[in-house]
């Protein structure tokens, strides 16, 4: 494999470049080469990007940095694409992570595609994927829904949609709302649903833990430091309905001979279903009472 260097980038191409979400060591050699080689860099905040470039000794030509954010990208996209059509090269970066993933850039990439200009990815850090990869929750199917709504009613509506959603769900949340969001999550999804909370990923105080929602809220409030930073919530998908029915069938059979706790434990081992909701169901079905009566 060869790395693109100055002068070897494709004329007319837009490069979507991922940048570190905390640890500057995560900026790849290819990303550095692209940022050093393009004629212009469209950045969410030129001050942040200038500091990043300075750290790596990357210099841009006069006018080489242009601010591209939510408030102006629709106006600037056509002009930047015209520069590409004339043979220019352009890199797109956000303040941190992969552009367009809850960050600006959609209007520019869409305009470049519609104009037939080549668009290339220079992949790298993404907080959502980073958190998913360390969560211990299912990764074969997942959905990413960006930042949670600011208002409680809207958040609860978002969580309510996950009651029967089998895929792992990923959200971003801020330090100012994390406690309220965990309250809303617990209210809508119940105490048994497992959730990974990951904060300050790749930074000095990185921390992550996966717990049932009922335990997670108490854990998060157990230390004021756990409420600081930038957060990713990774939420376990709802049990498959067919699997749930099979787990309940096995539990009912076991309850005919065993107390609730043992029946739930064995049903969980046999079917792979989580033990805690099975135990709650066993109590609802009167397992302990039935077992006591049998004795």
Topology:
Layout: E1 14-17, H1 29-37, E2 40-43, H2 46-55, E3 65-67, H3 73-85, E4 90-93, H4 106-114, E5 119-122, H5 127-135, E6 142-147, H6 152-160, E7 168-173, H7 178-189, E8 194-199, E9 207-212, H8 213-220, E10 231-235, H9 241-255, H10 260-271, H11 275-284, H12 287-294
Parallel strand pairs: 1-4, 1-5, 2-3, 2-4, 6-7
Antiparallel strand pairs: 7-10, 8-9, 8-10
Helix pairs in contact: 3-4, 6-7, 7-8, 9-10, 10-11
Total count of strands = 10
Q: What is the overall silhouette?
A: elongated
Oligomer: single chain
Query: What's the total helix number?
Result: 12
| Straight-line distance between termini | 72 Å
| Mean pLDDT reading | 92
Low-confidence stretches: 1-7, 289-295
Arrangement of strands in the largest sheet: 3-2-4-1-5
What does this structure look like?
With 295 residues, the protein is an alpha/beta fold. The chain has helices at 29-37, 46-55, 73-85, 106-114, 127-135, 152-160, 178-189, 213-220, 241-255, 260-271, 275-284, 287-294, and strands at 14-17, 40-43, 65-67, 90-93, 119-122, 142-147, 168-173, 194-199, 207-212, 231-235. A 5-stranded parallel beta sheet has the order 3-2-4-1-5. Helix 7 (178-189) packs antiparallel against helix 8 (213-220). The radius of gyration is 25 Å and the shape is elongated.
């Amino acid at each position: 494999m060869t790395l693109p260097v100055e002068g070897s980038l494709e004329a007319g191409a837009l490069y979507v470049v991922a940048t570190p979400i905390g640890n500057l060591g995560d900026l790849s050699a290819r990303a550095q080469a692209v940022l050093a080689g393009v004629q212009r860099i469209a950045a969410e905040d030129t001050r942040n990007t200038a500091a990043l470039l300075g750290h790596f000794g990357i210099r841009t030509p006069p006018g080489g940095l242009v601010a591209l954010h939510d408030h102006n990208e629709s106006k600037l996209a056509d002009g930047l694409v015209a520069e590409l059509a004339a043979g220019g090269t352009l890199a797109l970066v956000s303040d941190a992570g992969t552009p367009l993933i809850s960050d600006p850039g959609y209007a520019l990439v869409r305009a470049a595609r519609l104009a037939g200009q080549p668009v290339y990815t220079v992949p790298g850090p993404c907080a959502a994927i980073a958190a998913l990869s360390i969560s211990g929750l299912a990764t074969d199917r997942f959905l990413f829904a960006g930042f949670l709504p600011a208002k409680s009613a809207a958040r609860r509506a978002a969580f309510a949609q996950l009651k029967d959603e089998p895929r792992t769900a990923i959200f971003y949340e801020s330090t100012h709302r994390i406690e309220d969001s965990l309250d809303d999550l617990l209210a809508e999804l119940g105490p048994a649903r497992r959730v990974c909370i990951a904060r300050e990923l790749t930074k000095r105080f990185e921390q992550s833990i996966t717990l049932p929602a009922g335990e997670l809220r108490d854990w998060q409030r157990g230390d004021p430091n756990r409420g600081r930073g930038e957060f990713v919530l990774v939420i376990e998908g709802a049990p498959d309905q067919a699997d749930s029915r099979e787990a309940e069938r096995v539990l009912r059979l076991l309850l005919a001979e065993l107390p609730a706790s043992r029946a739930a434990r064995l049903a969980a081992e046999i079917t792979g279903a989580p033990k805690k909701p099975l135990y709650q169901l066993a109590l609802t079905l009167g397992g302990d009472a039935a077992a006591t009566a049998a004795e």
